Amino acid sequence: VNRIAMWSGPRNISTALMRSFENRPDCVVSDEPFYSHYLHKTGIDHPMRDEVIESGNTDWDSIAIELTGPIPKGKLIWYQKHMAQHNLPGCDLGWVQKLTNCILIRHPKDVMLSYLEKYEIDSEDQLGYNQQLDLFKLLTDLDIPLLVIDAADILINPGVMLRLICEKLGIPFFEEMLSWPAGIRANDGIWGKHWYGSVEVSTGFQPYIQKSGNLQPEYQDMYYACLESYKELYSHRIQRGIEL
């Protein structure tokens, strides 16, 4: 394993997991390298849209070439935090065959309640479940192994799950993965000012707490569509997690 692609959706523990891997002595990380491309192509008006686009590369093919190229800073492992919803229709995903792919899932009720605290939801495509399932099917059809990881499993028992993830990836586990210094990182995307408030003050994984509250009726159809994709992926998770 040299390059790990961790495919998450929004409002997951993706940034905390990036912190965990970044704290390894043998690892360099990248934070959502396709975000600028995604905003540039879709026209979606995310917070800090212009700054995000200006801060990154908007050319899909050149980003993919870079992500499959030499590992930066002389490290052994390149951990790439990706958002599945950034995989837009028509974008070539052939390059992912050169990486070890993981899909990080979280129950859609928790995701949607958290997302709505930060931004509006107009389409299930914003949440990444369809794109995660598409990626799962693409790799499975090619007989390329991948890991499906449920966020709740990590939060319930970080030590056990991180050891399991490392074992499945064929890399050593480091105790440093369980805690990290608070604060921002040079590798954080510029959008962290809007999205990363909780992880910036964190020093480790927070205990699992299911989100309280209920989704408004207008989100029910979207929720059940996401839930269907989530359940299929959840059935392939590497350790038993919360019951549906």
UniProtKB/TrEMBL annotation:
InterPro entries: Class-IV_PLP-Dep_Aminotrnsfr, P-loop_NTPase. One of its GO terms (biological process) is carboxylic acid metabolic process. SUPFAM superfamilies: P-loop containing nucleoside triphosphate hydrolases. Pfam families: Sulfotransfer_5 (PF19798). Belongs to the class-IV pyridoxal-phosphate-dependent aminotransferase family. This is Sulfotransferase domain-containing protein.
